[in-house]
Amino acid sequence: MKAVRLFQFREELKESEIDTPKPRGKQVLLRVRGAGVCHTDLSIREGRFALKHMMKLPVTLGHEIAGVVDEVGEEVYEISRGENVVVYPWIGVDEACVYCRMGEEQHCDKPGWLGFISDGGYAEYVLVPHYRYVYRTRLDPAIASTLSCSGITAFRAFKEANLRPHETLLVVGAGGGLGTLAVGIAKARGCPKVIAVDIGEEKLKLAEEAGADHVLSGDRDTVSEEILELTEGKRGVEAVLDFVGSKSTFRVYSRILAKMGRYVKVGTMGETPDFQYPLLTQRAVRIIGTLVGNREDMLQVLKMVEAGLVKPRITKIKLEEVNEALNRLERGNISGRQVVTLA
């Protein structure tokens, strides 16, 4: 089968012909129909991924995966060949660990993540180690694939913000793949005021289409004051979801948090922020980190998208275009989510 694989960090992925896996036991073999292109894949390619010491090269990247069940192992009875499914890739190998027992296996100390530790979705086929990680769906595979990471990451970030019914949410990086989903999820969950910040007309337009009540350009010197003007008594926003994670985004947007506000830093990308401890104590602000959601989050997001409450914004590409897709991510000139589609 054809696969696009990483052979060496800081080098482009290479197209290869490898053997098609044979499922055994509780395994499921999928014919890939959609594979989202995540910023984490860029981090891995460039050798900036924190867990790269656990990876064995070569490996097929791509952890946002949807497709059709092609074959199942002899112990699989719950799912059948020909069914359309989406994959939860954040697999914990040590089921006895405290995080797996908590239902948070994405934090397992022995991860078996697809597209990282084992081969992922930038290929014609992918082997899923257990049928419990595949979910039936009627969605277009290109749409469904984005839920495996960007969807559940955005959903978990919104949960961590713990918004009350009257509170205002600020989404930083609102025109990207995660940001647009976060805006849509927030509105679907009843958030009364979502302020979206990004740079570039196309990204701001996507954030507005996703449901943002106000869209502001982050490259204006007056953006902080503009945000404060949109809040009651200019007291600031109650929560920030930061999908950029740069020193400048933290410096600017942590200062417009209301007292007792929550600043949620999302995902694997970002820089070490500079902050003053009085921000935490005198204003009772909380800084929260979140990586990705669990399997229950996956079910919740899947239901929301299938019900039409949230609409991922995607651009379809070919398998051989993965490197250029990653390069576009590095340049920052992509809106929404790029998705590899295979016939």
Provide a descriptive summary of the structure in words.
The structure is a single chain. Helices cover 26% and strands 25% of the residues. It folds into two domains: 2-148 and 294-341, Alpha-Beta Complex (Quinone Oxidoreductase, Chain A, domain 1), CATH 3.90.180; 152-290, NAD(P)-binding Rossmann-like Domain (Rossmann fold, 3-Layer(aba) Sandwich), CATH 3.40.50.720. α4 packs across α5 (177-188) and α4 crosses α10. The mean pLDDT is 93. α9 links the parallel β13 (257-266) and β14 (286-290). The relative contact order is 0.16. It has helices at residues 39-45, 98-101, 141-145, 150-161, 177-188, 201-209, 223-229, 247-253, 277-281, 295-306, 322-331, and strands at 2-6, 14-17, 28-36, 59-60, 64-72, 84-87, 125-128, 134-136, 168-172, 193-198, 214-217, 237-242, 257-266, 286-290, 314-317, 337-341. With 343 residues, it is an alpha/beta fold. The protein contains eleven helices and 16 strands. Residues 2-340 form the Enoyl reductase (ER) domain. InterPro entries: ADH-like_C, ADH-like_N, ADH_Zn_CS, ER, GroES-like_sf, NAD(P)-bd_dom_sf.
